[in-house]
Amino acid sequence: MSRSVLVTGGNRGIGLAIARAFADAGDKVAITYRSGEPPAGFLAVKCDITEPEQVEQAYKEIEEKHGTVEVLVANAGVTRDQLLMRMTEEDFAAVLETNLTGTFRVVKRANRGMLRARKGRVVLISSVVGLMGSAGQANYAASKAGLVGFARSLARELGSRNITVNVVAPGFVDTDMTRALNDDQRENIVKQVPLARYAQPEEIAASVRFLASDEAAYITGAVLPVDGGLGMGH
């Protein structure tokens, strides 16, 4: 049965792969994007999740065209990498505002319809960095670690309403961002990964789709690492 699915930041990379996975399964997929031209084949809604009014307007448009959001994948995120001594207040606040507070906004708005329907699936996209830490990414790691506590609190809060809340924590993924690294940087990263390769975006998408499926109905508050073994023990 076709569901109404929203993927934030679904215009490229991991988000686009997730959107395609749900569309291929027959779901009605909406994506949010902040800039550029959105990909064809989805209900694309321009939305900056740091702006509450834009989040509200995006949901109204999606609900009019696809109905109440039944599956939310909170994927939108930013980085502003810098060593702590050089990191500005703005660098720190901007990353948390998008990655953590922005996620709060989109989940809270989706929760309204899910509570009425007494069912729903929420999947938050964190990162192995949120579990292990990474030099030069204190802001990003803090924001992605925060998603774990946020998800687990909501899993306890919403479980009795048949709403599951889970986290996927990708490792290094073969996207435009990692392709911009030079050969030495890419080789050093791969050396840290037991499976000795980058993930494909489709592998992250498959895990997200599983957590939103009927087969995962008894999984909530979980953190699923899809990192080739990089974060074992964290």
TrEMBL record:
Pfam families in the cross-refs: adh_short_C2 (PF13561)
Keyword Lyase assigned: no
Reaction equations catalysed: a (3R)-hydroxyacyl-[ACP] + NADP(+) = a 3-oxoacyl-[ACP] + NADPH + H(+)
SMART domains reported in the protein's UniProt record: PKS_KR
Parts of the chain that traverse the membrane: none
PANTHER family in the record: 3-OXOACYL-(ACYL-CARRIER-PROTEIN) REDUCTASE (PTHR42879), 3-OXOACYL-[ACYL-CARRIER-PROTEIN] REDUCTASE FABG (PTHR42879:SF2)
Protein name: 3-oxoacyl-[acyl-carrier-protein] reductase
